[in-house]
Amino acid sequence: MVDAVAQAGDARWAEVEARLIIDALPGVGPVSVVRIIHAFGSARAALRAPGPAFDRVARVRVAGRRRDAAIATAVEGALVVARRQGQGIVLFGEADYPRRLMNLTDPPSVLFLRGNLEALGRGGVAIVGSRRCTQRGRDVARRLGGALARRGVPVLSGLALGVDGAAHEGCLERRGCTVAVLGRGADEPYPRSHSHVFRRVLEAGLVVTEFAPRTPPLPHHFPRRNRILAALADTVVVVEAAERSGALITVEHALDLGLDVWAVPGPIDSPTCRGSNALLADGARPLVSIDAFVDAVAPVEAAPTQDVQLPDGVEGRLWSVLTDEALDADVLARQADVDVPRVLAALSTLEVAGWIEQLPGMRFRRAS
Prior knowledge:
Elements: H1 10-24, H2 30-40, H3 43-48, H4 51-58, H5 69-85, E1 88-91, E2 110-115, E3 125-128, H6 135-150, E4 155-157, H7 163-173, E5 178-181, H8 195-204, E6 206-209, H9 221-232, E7 235-238, H10 247-256, E8 260-263, H11 274-281, E9 285-286, H12 290-297, H13 313-321, E10 327-328, H14 329-336, H15 340-352, E11 356-359, E12 363-366
Parallel strand pairs: 3-4, 3-7, 4-5, 5-6, 7-8, 8-9
Antiparallel strand pairs: 1-2, 2-6, 10-12, 11-12
């Protein structure tokens, strides 16, 4: 099991601190940090190495900054927060480090975790898309997250506005496991408006980031976040993406890793769907049915067995004709061969039990 920071030994704690100091050096990124660790055996040894040797491995002249007081103070402050919050930490090279991340050319040297630590490395489906998506996009993402949760498949996303938040919420509504990968420290939510989602993920899922506490959500952090999101997933779904959407960066990483990429077709004249539609033109798999997609990524025979009592009577007849496509009560009455008053009563029972959901216009469908 991943150790919590509060339980970390002194030597391991010093290694965490050393890695964060090296990562904070100007011109040093994830690739360089891992290269430096390999060259010197540990980040602690790298901080003690002669300056010329360190610069030679780092491939940039920064050895003199290793004892920068501002960097040391920032790292110490971040780790105080991590310790206080009981954040989990896993290091590149440890047995608990996710093997999936080893497939990256630039694996993070440190991961900070909050929530259900057992969710790390379980795989699942990454659901991504535009922050400024349409209501249709949010609805599809939420239903997709819920459908995967019902099948026991973890849902991964970035906690952003739009598609990301809707996917997390859909999964949480069905008491599924959701993993949020952040482009900032795990000490606070981003955006602030998703504080409620952040708290629910901490209770029922996992928050993952390579950034230490107090690290702000800078623009260049999100492409780094997206590679982790792709690497932790088995499959990536793009619900809606504009031409320059950051979701497409996740797709690039997914393709590099050999993952399946699916995209939800959208209106050809919708700017929010131009990027996702272009993926379809380039060969992404079309997601045209939530039920069919879930069956493809998590066949029923491979799903965890659950003691679920299906509805019977009129409710059962309605359940057999309901799908993920919304139908009005008259249509359902004809298909189930039941009069409308009894159908309405049965639909009310199914809705209260959480089996179905009602949409505007008295239309009903199976709950995702």
